[in-house]
Amino acid sequence: MVTTRRSTALDVLRGIAVLGTLATNIWIFTDVEGLVGYIVGERRATGAWEPVQVVLQQLAQGKFLGLLTVMFGIGLAIQQRSALRRAARWPGAYPVRAGLLFVDGVINYVLFTEFDVLMGYAVTGLVVAYILSASIRRQRLAAAVACGVHALILGVVVLALATASATPPGSALSPNPYRDGSFLDLVAFRLDNVLLFRLEIVFILPMSIALFLAGAALFRAGILEPTARRLRRRLMIGGLGVALPLDLLVGSFGGSAGLVLGRYGIAPFVALGILAAVAEFYSNGRAAGVVGRALAPVGRTALSCYVLQNALAGALCYGWGLGIAGRLDGTTVVPVTVGLFLLVAAAMTIASRLWLARFDRGPLEWVWHASYESLTRSRVSAASRS
């Protein structure tokens, strides 16, 4: 029963995190200038749709990125516990796993999306894997240092944004590869601007390290077990009762500074509240239910669904596909964006369920696992020959 309860909660949480990142990113896909236009802020809804857009964007902003990051930390702790139970060294072959995840991220970035998170998670996971081999005291020290560095960097950025002179938004791209370019034109655009588009990885690295370590610590504390009800209650009160209203207020009315503060400063606490709420729901061995049965397959094929949803959204929105983003205006951007999110999310839930009816792993998970097995066997063979 413990294994079933734990795996159900983990799968549902991963499913929520993956589809939640889509709820954030879909607004970038439907911006006529992609990530550049989304940052500049030119595409805005008009009339009664404007407050709807603000609320919908803020509800997703940063929360599911934080949840996905914490889930990676929990996954890392599970891998470490499994290795120690087998009396295997840690981190052992984990650098191979991190290297394969980085390759997945490079492919996802080059082909589908300039806001890929996999490369950053690969680097973070490699750092945290070695931190987890240290004592608990040193892990806590590392988490405190990471939090302090992140708070310092975030404070400087928020202060700069708050004191900067407002500039009217304007067209950022001419020519516009998102609307007018081919698939290869957009690939070339990402490669030409790789340093700019990958700056977020550097900016959020301390936060990611802290959230990975938080996920590992929560797993050790039994966040998924019935006995951790008091811990879950505290996280729900802090994350959903305090942080969520504050995040909505700051992000909706604080301008660019508030948006950044909410996404990178407050939203991670909301993510912990979501984690605790879902864990509490399944802590007594509750069956997955209709929603859980829809989300769990997405969680089990998280890597495949994450990459596939980016590919599908790009095909629907960019000029090399159906080009929907280029035909939207202030009166249509909100309903169409919401419709596209529901369409892509439904496609992910249906496709993952159908796939797992026949196979044990998602397609990219299978390739990743086969590559890992091949590379680690090669390492063992080389070590034995030497």
Automatic annotation (TrEMBL):
The keyword Transmembrane helix applies. It comes from Rhodococcus rhodnii LMG 5362. Coiled coil: none annotated. Keywords: Membrane, Transmembrane, Transmembrane helix. It comes from the Bacteria. Residues 218-370 form the DUF418 domain. InterPro entries: Bact_Transport_Assoc, DUF418. The chain crosses the membrane at residues 12-30, 59-78, 90-112, 118-136, 143-166, 201-223, 235-255, 261-282, 303-321, 333-356. This is DUF418 domain-containing protein. The keyword Transmembrane helix applies. PANTHER family: INNER MEMBRANE PROTEIN (PTHR30590). Pfam families: DUF418.
